[in-house]
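2024-03-11 09:14:02 DEBUG pipeline.ingest accepted 1 chain
2024-03-11 09:14:02 DEBUG pipeline.ingest length=997
2024-03-11 09:14:03 DEBUG pipeline.predict start
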Amino acid sequence: MLENPNSRSKYHLGRLSWRLLLVLLGYVLTGYLALAHPYVKPNVSLIWLPSGIALAALVRWGPKMAPAIYLAALLVNLSSGLTIFAAASIAIGNTLAPYFCYLFLKNKRFSSEFARRQDVIWFCLAAVMGMSISASGGALVLWLMGLIAHPDLVWLSWWAGDTVGVLLAGPLLLSVSYSSIRKLAARRAEMLTFILIFVVVHWLIFFSAQNTMHLSFVAMAVMIWAALRFAITWASFTVLTSIYIAGWASYQGQGPFSSADMQANLFLLWLYASTMTVSSLLIAALQAERLAATSELQDSFERINKVASRLPGLILQYRVHADQSSSIPYASSAITAMLEFTQEELKDSTKALFARINPEDREKGEQTLALATQELSIWQSEFRYQRRDSSVRWLYIDGLPEQEAKGSILWHCFLTDITERKQAEQDLRIAATTFESQEGIFVADGNWKVLRVNQAFSRITGFAADELLAIPVQRLHTTHQDQSFFDAIDASLRSQQFWQGELWSKRKNGETYPQMITLTAITDSKGEVSNYIGSFTDISLHKGYEEEIRNLAFYDPLTQLPNRRLLMDRLQHLISVSQRNVSHSALLFLDLDNFKTLNDTRGHDAGDLLLIEAASRLQSCVRDSDTVARLGGDEFVVVLEELSEIRDEAIAQADKVGEKIREMLSQSYQIMDFEHHGSASIGICLFQGADNTVKDLFKRADTAMYEAKTSGRNAVRFFDPAMQAVLVVRMMLESNLRIALALNQFQLYYQVQVNADGQLIGAEALLRWIHPDRGFISPAEFIPLAEETGLIVPIGLWVMDTACAQLKLWEAQADTRHLSLAVNVSAKQFKQADFVDTISHIVHKHQIDASRLKIELTESTILDNVDATTEKMHQLKKLGIAFSMDDFGTGYSSLAYLQRLPLNQLKIDQSFVRDINLDENDATIVRAIIALGINLGLNVIAEGVETAAQRSFLIENHCYSFQGYLFSKPIPAEAFQALIAMHKTLPIVSASQDLVT
């Protein structure tokens, strides 16, 4: 919040006005009181307090107080009967005198707290010099006006009165504050005692009739008490009160200062007042200095103790006496934690301490101490110290000697625990020995830059240590491993701080070699990697022997393909695994056509080149998980794993690979200086389970291969003729399916959906294929093939587009605009990345009411990837599209997922509806599905309703939507339109009637 400048200036002006008024009133009031009983006529008083008030105001509040001082002095002088000129002239002196004192004190950096002796001295000196100005001016004016006859006596009286007034009033007004008053109030009892003694003493000195001796020195004792116990404020007030009591008593003719000689009395009073004032100020200043020094000493001691307590060690003084006994006169607070003794326990003797030092180390320490004592040099020693729990700590002492009287020596020592350092030194010695082992070792920083290597590293790699410093370790690796390999290493180091394995590296001469390496990540206190350490050995010889043995045993030396032995092992393993795997596998037996002719005409070298190229082409035709092997000569075998679980699909997959191989091997070969055209005959044997032997599989595949050769070579044949027939039919169906999509041979049929009152509420769109030659082809025959080949995606788009066009036509008619249309969407179509965008485009293209469109999804489609499915469904729900779960109850629905999905409807599968009146299990399942849908707030519809009894059962169990032959078979759009027209003319049957519209 910003401060208002006007308000601030008003505040300062108000405070200044208040201060000016306060100074004016204080000056005038004390001036009137002083002139009421002047010692020298017309206006010379014994003590002139206004001068002290003026100086205190200038010191505390600055030169702005000068106008108030001058005006007050003018008023006081006028009240004494002086002319305006005389009063104004004297007022100038009364103002200049304190102003001079103010400037003098400011130049001397005076402190108004009188906490230093020099402050008292400067203040007294300022009063003596400054008040001479007012005395000189006043005496001169009075003498010139003829009001006095002896100006020298008036000057002295004026000067003495002003000086004493400054000494009495100034310190009191300068030191008084709220905190000083609060401190006095805190010592209430002592204050009351002091006041009582003060009153009694001053009554005895100045007013008692029985007082026959001068007791002024007792007043000095009281003043000293005030200065020592109550500081400057109360001391000044005490002196001021004492002086005024003395002055009043003298004025009344009582006390030690009352005599016939008035002049002598005056000077005695001034002397008494000055002595008391200056003495009290000096005593108070000395007391303040003492307290400040004591506080500073205490603070210093506390700071030293705090520093000592934070040091990682123990500060102590160890005194060796002339009789060789020893003690510890001082120790920091760490002594208890480090030595398990207190300083009090060791201040007289250290025998208990030395008893816990290892005897061998104690003897060595005494020898070094004796030598250091003789030379008065630094004493340094380390020793083992046994703690109460029997553990041993290494301690190190460092001491400086100080020669003392009576032959003793005081050692100023610092003791530290070096156990960890000793352990680290031992670890370093072990590490240094280990570092120079027979394994190559390197140390790198957090960025993999080399910091240090051992001799074995240089011997293995050929790099000297200085050639590798600050070079990234990665430069020593080859391209045998890809980036993903090194990313896996980094991931292991981040998670486990460790990795071990084989790496390919290179020597200084560029030669590559394999190494078995262990990498370790070193982390700092923040958990960040600060260093990497690697140790490795050269496994070139081992690797070479390993590879050579493996190649000779399992690989064909010409093509580097697996040989018969490795093939047999893999086939045997595959057959054993088939016991737990229901997928099919296939064995392809290949023979290169006319290979013997090439060998005979072009030589074995040409034949070898052909075999090598054929092997390469075979490997390019299969997956990494499949096996390509050479049995010998021109015979090759390909093993295909993880084919489909469905036999027909597995046959198609094997045939596809076989045709790909046949086409690849039929392409021309560039062998030496000529072009060779070859081909291959391929026999395929499909197998599943563990009922086959390797021998049987080879026999069947070989038989199929000879069948391929018999048919004219360059062909693919299956061992089972029935398989070939199925394959041909499947190929023809796939070809016709593509033609049907291109020629628009598909149609949409519509099956009505009705409610319990017999009213039409919608329909389901069903795909039908009318082949020009074969006629009606069942969806059960072509839909699975469309799914397998991927044709289901474009077919599904055609269905959705046609269904939306039909909805648009229904919206134009009053009888049909309320109907909804359900469209089945396959899992493969729904999983397309652009499925949502595609449906949105179709909906906007036909400008339909999207709330009338309902997409039916199977449980497997929805639950395959719940998160992705839910996201797509929510996006389509924003358009208004509804969702129905088709065939509900036939899969493995999860209720946890079901409540998350934005479904509108559950469709009871017809397999449960068919026997609900005959099979209690089916009836129970249907009741459960209906109850589940109701509880989840979903509409439930039953498909496959064919009898009135089924309909009645469903209505009784609160299912009010139906679809099935009881109402209508799937019919074309024209027939569906006619059905609607006929339905309009029929009466609506209530839910309680056992009739159908």
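2024-03-11 09:14:41 DEBUG pipeline.report The longest strand covers residues 392-403.
2024-03-11 09:14:41 DEBUG pipeline.predict end
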